[in-house]
Amino acid sequence: MVLFGGTGDLVMRKLLPALYQAHAAGSLNNNGRVLALGRKDWSREQYLAFVEEHARVHIKEYFDVGQWQHFCERIDYYRLDASDAAGYPGLAEKLAGHPQRVVVCYLATAPDLFAGICENLAAVGLNDKHVRVVLEKPLGHDLASSNAINDAVAKHFAEDQLYRIDHYLGKESVQNLLAIRFGNSLFEPLWRREWVRDVQITIAEDLGVESRGDFYDGTGALRDMVQNHLLQLLCFVAMEPPASLDADAIRDEKLKVVKSLRPFTPDDVLNKTVRGQYKSGAVGGRPVKGYLEEDHIPAGSRTETFVAIKAEIDNWRWAGVPFFLRTGKRLQERVAEIVINFRDVPHKLVPGPSGLPANQLVIRLQPEESIRLHFMAKAPGDSLVLQPTYLNLDFHEMSRSRRADAYERLLLDVIRGSLALFMRRDELVEAWRWVEPILDTWETATTPPKQYTAGSWGPAASSALLSRNGVAWHEES
Ligand SMILES: NC(=O)C1=CN([C@@H]2O[C@H](COP(=O)(O)OP(=O)(O)OC[C@H]3O[C@@H](n4cnc5c(N)ncnc54)[C@H](OP(=O)(O)O)[C@@H]3O)[C@@H](O)[C@H]2O)C=CC1
Ligand SMILES: O=C1O[C@H](COP(=O)(O)O)[C@@H](O)[C@H](O)[C@H]1O
């Protein structure tokens, strides 16, 4: 595995810890090697010392000195300016070995380097069928730039060599969603417009932009989270049963969903979307700065740190069922969940609480993974009155063994050559096509994003978006 951007934050926080865990779990082939690349003039020892400092912080309680030393035997460092073709013959020489070896080139750099890296790899023959390329997000800034990157990469690599990563698809509970939907006969008949009132998908973060102000200000929440993670989750909820678990069978079904999303007109953007930006407040009792006071954020920036959207899917299964999507930084808590609200009973025979959906399926992805089915049952006592209760599947309680992190799972999939949890180019194109009218309308809007207090659930307009549709966000109902 060749890590372009081998000294960067993503490699330190996610990729090397994930590879370490895979090593410690015995999931890596004994011959597996990691070659980290960067421009710094470091020796292997200097690199390993740098990595260990970060690894201790990010691997936390699973860091074991013995395992770590063993893992380090797999790692090497090579100085390379990725944009300079002159360094690549040396790289090819370093990788020369068994002709059948699988080489995974993980491009953990800014995307403007991707085209050059692929061209340089091809020039030294590092694009044969044993080479796989992992492309990190964001893959472009809009449809045109995404197409430009994909075209440049496609000149040298076939589509089945390309692994466009979305780490949300590596989360255990996202795969559990597939297992639950297609492994039980109970849900399928209910999983449609006749029985589902609305679907809510939330990825809320309590963190702010941290040290990524520069990157974030040019990106915003719509490109950073909605165009990829939220749309992918929506696809997994809404797609038809695929014919098999083959990568293309799954990706074909997801593509149909994105293509069925109703396009936004400028008026829809006004009425069906909310963009917000956090101002100072408190998160978990700790005072925090507003977005405009964060490092590297230009004065008066209008970049959104919160998005809520009413999405509609124009197909037979989902016509008329709103899918509410929401994400934001500096919200009240870190939580990612999918809530399926089922329709109410047609006639309320037994009295009970009003305003609550009788049945909800809450699939929690993080911080802890669980699936909760809410329903009504008789309240204890003399009278026949309903009270809400639930059945809970707590995956942590069910198995206390360590759960593979999303990156660990996806890296192993790349090594095994499984593309099912990676995005195909046509999916990406359609996702950009859908978000672009929103981006365009926001960029020309005369009004700034709506402010919300850090530590809240976003701007009041977000609750109003749902109440106009006669519903409320899960935590408000
Ligand atoms: N950090 C995160 O949590 C996430 C990051 N991403 C994406 O991953 C990518 C990397 O992000 P991140 O790690 O945060 O970024 P960093 O800025 O921390 O790291 C960038 C890396 O790129 C390397 N680099 C830059 N220019 C060159 C060059 N010409 N030749 C060789 N190496 C070069 C740098 O190495 P050096 O300076 O040593 O040469 C450094 O290792 C970005 O596209 C980001 O959007 C995606 C999801 C999450
Ligand atoms: O891709 C990204 O995801 C993270 C959130 O990921 P999570 O697994 O911690 O929920 C987000 O903070 C970051 O801005 C974004 O680029």
UniProtKB/TrEMBL annotation:
Coiled coil: none annotated. Its EC number is 1.1.1.49. Substrate binds at H167, K171, E205, D224, K329. InterPro entries: G6P_DH, G6P_DH_AS, G6P_DH_C, G6P_DH_NAD-bd, NAD(P)-bd_dom_sf. Keywords: Carbohydrate metabolism, Glucose metabolism, NADP, Oxidoreductase. The keyword Mitochondrion does not apply. Pathway: Carbohydrate degradation; pentose phosphate pathway; D-ribulose 5-phosphate from D-glucose 6-phosphate (oxidative stage): step 1/3. Residues 178-474 form the Glucose-6-phosphate dehydrogenase C-terminal domain. The active site is at H229. Residues 2-176 form the Glucose-6-phosphate dehydrogenase NAD-binding domain. Belongs to the glucose-6-phosphate dehydrogenase family. This is Glucose-6-phosphate 1-dehydrogenase. The gene is zwf.
